[in-house]
Amino acid sequence: MATEAQAANEDSGGTFDLSRLGIVFLVLLVGVTAYFLWWASGYTEGHFPIVLVLATIFGVFMAFNIGGNDVANSFGTSVGAGTLTIRQALAIAAIFEVSGAIIAGGSVTDTIRDGIVDLSRMAVEPADFIYIMMSALIAAALWLMFASNRGWPVSTTHSIVGAIVGSSITLGVLSSGSDTAFSLVQWGKVGQIVISWVLSPALGGIIAYFLFREIKKHVLAYNDAAEEKLEAIRRQKREHARRHKEAFERLSEIQQISYTHTMARDAHIMADRDFEAEDLESDYFRKLRQFERQRKALHPHRAIESLIPPIAAVGAMVIAGMLLSKGLGNLDLDLSLLQDGLILAMVGAAVWLAVYVFARSLKDRELGRATFLLFSWMQVFTAAGFAFSHGSNDIANAIGPFAAILDVLRTGTVGQSAPVPTIAMITFGVALIVGLWFIGKNVIQTVGHNLTTIHPASGFSAELSASAVVLFASILGLPVSSTHILIGAVLGIGLVNNYTNWDLMKPIAFAWVVTLPVAAVLSALGFVVLRSVL
């Protein structure tokens, strides 16, 4: 795990050469994409090769920008807290995002993301359907790239939904007139997206505020008070040693020799833990014994040992619940409510015991460092779980429209769902990670540093709160955005710390509002161009 200084160095441009790793990523992305194109030409039986190449470029570009915005947003708190360096975040993202996409991304995806457009109300030629999806991919990708360059974390789901709406309405206007075109859109679902602009950050902020406030009050504040008392005892010990040295120097040589032997005997006695205070002969070691009793009476690690393990257990259960409901939702595990509950209970119990043992092993560590280590490890696990869930769900924002294009090229017909080839998941997963590396740093800087100050305890609180809201919103069917939730959670942390950069939040909130219409306009223009050129 990273130190805060390392994270700061890397976020500010780093002290190491990025070009070699960047070249490796570019070669990897080009190689994987080229292999996919070779495979896809056989999969689609050579139909419309130019369309296949363009669609692949657009799809990979979309996944690249999801990595630079959505994935960067997910890891911003971990990097900002100093828990992970950018390279470490990249490694975790590479493993868990891609694994989530491949293992639990699903073998079939809806062709129209979130069912927001009903194209069954008019006759849609397969070619026009392909243009709708292609224009949606490139429009959403361009908007995400612009937002990432500005450091604005925006919703990739809203981007692709807005883009599909824009290109679909454009087809409707060109084919059947404006009345029919606007009737294609499920405006109720658009209204849910509007609600999510407020609901998502509000829920994330409220949960994070109360969670971190309690952690700060009962763990961090307790540790600060204990550390102050420990420092007072250390000062008394130093003063005691100084006075003892001065008194020793005033003794005669014979007295010094005698007292030195006494000190040696006491030192030997104290090395054996099974001794009584009455066994000590010297005032020096008797006083040290008193200081040690005072230190133990403080119970400085009480909060670490008694409160952090149950917090970690609850966090693990939330992450496990999110993985079962969303991360592994596409695998059709068919677990009963009782089975889900038992799995969560086992996860919680195992994590409780593991963190308790780890906390006990840190007794000899400085209190602040021990707290940093515990919350850092906890934050790594929440980030990894969030990444797996993200990879299994939000990759659909790129793979859904692209899989629909592949299916039309292969079958010549438009279906409600489309198979997702594993090689496509791998290709888009690689594009996610490459995008995180090349264009994700501005979003990481925004989430991890610029909105508020983040450290492992607050970063863990933000990630756990976001995961909890995603889990319960999924269960209740509430329209929420994981990106907006996490930003709201970061703002909630800022409220507890009395530092929130509201000036930066204004353009971010504006970007959330304009994401849908901007993506729609760009997609409409793209549809017109593609339809006239191809």
UniProtKB/TrEMBL annotation:
Keywords: Coiled coil, Membrane, Phosphate transport, Transmembrane, Transmembrane helix, Transport. The keyword Acetylation does not apply. One of its GO terms (cellular component) is membrane. Residues 223-250 form a coiled coil. One of its GO terms (biological process) is phosphate ion transmembrane transport. The chain crosses the membrane at residues 21-40, 46-68, 89-109, 129-147, 159-178, 190-212, 303-325, 337-358, 370-388, 418-439, 468-496, 508-530. One of its GO terms (molecular function) is phosphate transmembrane transporter activity. It is found in: Membrane. It is a multi-pass membrane protein. The keyword Transport applies. Pfam families: PHO4. Belongs to the inorganic phosphate transporter (PiT) (TC 2.A.20) family. This is Phosphate transporter.
